[in-house]
Amino acid sequence: MMDCRVVQKHLSAYVDGELEPSRMLEVEQHLGVCSDCELARGCLVALRREVGARLVAPPAPAHLRLRVQRAMKGIEVGDSSAPNHTWSVVLSVAASVLLVAGSLVGTDRRIDSAGMISPLDIVKDVVDRHKDELPAEIATKEPQRATSWFRDKVGFRVRTVEFPTEPKVHFTGARMSQVGAQQAAKLYYDVDESRLTLVMFKAPAPLTEALSNSRGLERFGAHRVRVSGRDVTYHTLQGYTVPMLQDNGIVYAFAGDLDQTSLLHLVATARIPH
User: Fold this and answer.
1) What torsion, rounded to 10 degrees, do the Cα atoms 197, 186, 232, 240 define?
2) Domain that holds residue 41
3) Model-level pTM greater than 0.70?
4) Are residues 259 and 124 both part of a single domain?
5) What is the pLDDT of residue 226?
6) Chain centre distance of CA 36
7) Structural domain count, the chain
8) Do 198 and 88 share a structural domain?
9) In-domain check, residue 111
10) N or C end of the chain: smaller count of CB under 10 Å?
11) CATH of the domain at 260
12) How much is the mean pLDDT over the chain?
């Protein structure tokens, strides 16, 4: 199993979902047994959320980024047996968040003046959440257990989408996730021998605007089709079709190993319980 120093080295990429699946699983296994590193992870998520909420269009100046980089070189994480180990980890994490904020000028992600990523990058995040194949944090075939598990974990009510006319669809579990700087819920379904991932999150303004009319859809590069009497909006990226539904300010974005026609018909049958 990884030790604390290795986990701390990869913690930033872990939170962003950018590690290889095998490495993600190793970090997750360590977090499950190490309260210090789990505390650091929680601090990192909270700090990044705050940075995302407060970020404005003008990026941090280059000299600030260099100063943070120099400062980080002098940070040494204490031995895991030392009493101040927890706070050493937290300080290291905080420094890494500052570095991320300063380095945004070099990223290819499109961020608006409110710190929100573009609709296209949201679609990319949904595809990446499906591809990472991380295990469920709560493995259950009972949707009610999953919705209860999410209570107080994300800033919105999580509702497991049902497919009442599709007997081949089976709910298998869920886990916490992230889209951009926002917390998200990730739900897992099996469809015969294929996987279906549902990522739900609060609808950011740029995405809501892009989906609101035909002009926005065209700029976004998305499509809207009528399937089984229901309008379904979707985008295609990296060979994946990503259908999206909205309900009460929440986006329900799907990605799966199904072909486009099957996935669109499946999503057209989806029911969001109230």
Assistant:
1) -40
2) 4-106
3) no
4) yes
5) 94
6) 23
7) 2
8) no
9) no
10) C
11) 3.30.200.100
12) 81
Structure tokens at 95: 């420094």
Q: Cα separation of 228 and 181, whole Å?
A: 34
The answer on 71 and 30 residing in a single domain is yes
**N- to C-terminal Cα separation, the chain:** 43
Strand partners, 251: 201, 246
Residue 174, beta-bridge partner list: 138, 187
How far apart CA 172 and CA 139 sit, in angstroms, is 6
Which of 106, 138, 173 delimits the end of a domain?
Answer: 106
Domain shared by 126 and 261, yes or no: yes
Give pLDDT, residue 114.
46
What is the predicted pLDDT for the residue at 4?
87
Query: Are residues 166 and 266 in contact, defined by beta-carbon separation less than 8 angstroms?
Result: yes
Domain assignment present for 98: yes
CA distances from 95 to 49, 83, 157, 190 (A): 15, 20, 32, 40
Q: Are 101 and 60 in contact (CB under 8 A)?
A: yes
